[in-house]
Amino acid sequence: MDSASPELIADRLAIEEVLARYCRGIDRCDAAELERVFAADALIDYGDGAKPRDATISGLMEGLGAMRLTHHNIGNVICEIDGDTARAETYCVAYHFLAGPEGGEIELVVGGRYLDRLAKGKDAAWRITERLYVMDWNRTAPSTMRIEGGLFDGLQRRGARAPGDPSCDWWRR
Fold first, then answer.
1. In whole angstroms, what is the distance from residue 34 CA to residue 86 CA?
2. How far apart are CA 131 and CA 32, in angstroms?
3. Residues whose CB is less than 8 angstroms from the CB of residue 41 and which lie 6 or more positions away in sequence, other chains included
4. What dihedral angle (degrees, nearest 10) is formed by the CA atoms of 161, 113, 128, 1?
5. How far, in Å, CA of 96 to CA of 128, rounded?
6. Residues 67, 94 contacting (CB under 8 angstroms)
7. Burial zone of 97 (CB within 10 Å; 0-12 exposed, 13-18 middle, 19+ buried)
8. Residue 47 burial (CB < 10 Å; 0-12/13-18/19+)?
9. What is the tens place of the pLDDT at every residue in 106-157?
10. pTM
């Protein structure tokens, strides 16, 4: 297929949408969104061994749900599409805000890459069938986040886990 064909461009955009929805599902702790991203028989390995989709999502909801906030950002996406299958390497930086041992919060920032295999299903939707996570770097420090004082006093709409995040109602309207 020509690299500029409308079909190939549409597939690439659909794959990038799947990757973005993964970030949304993680950051909102929305298990249903993650189920849409991964194939039912997907194997997911964040570095501690491959696990099935449902066990992975359950573990993510428990682990990330204990954190006040996460914010996953994806960047460079290298994608090779071959018919109804594809491979993608996606760079990511993820911020995690968790309770500190002596009060306050800790910022854990992790940079890495997702190595994904994807397939287009009979419903024409792309889903991740296999994921390997590669951690390239990390940083842990006391949080410097401020939500009060100065300019921040006027910014009252804040991100949260689903269903309390402002985007949940926004998408329903």
1. 19
2. 18
3. 52, 53, 129
4. 130
5. 23
6. no
7. middle
8. exposed
9. 999 999 999 999 999 999 999 999 999 999 999 999 998 887 888 788 777 8
10. 0.90
**SS3 (DSSP) at 144:** coil
* Run of H or E including 65: helix 53-65
Q: Are 65 and 29 in contact (CB under 8 A)?
A: yes
Residues 14, 15, 21, 23: is their CA dihedral positive or negative? negative
Query: What are the structure tokens assigned to 3, written together?
Result: 């690299």
Length of the chain: 173
Residue 127's φ and ψ, nearest 5 degrees, are -145, 150
Find out whether the peptide bond into 163 is cis, omega within 30 degrees of 0. yes
Token couple for 17: 């949408």
Whole-number Cα distances in Å, 147 to 8, 27, 29: 43, 18, 21
The amino acid sitting at 170 is W
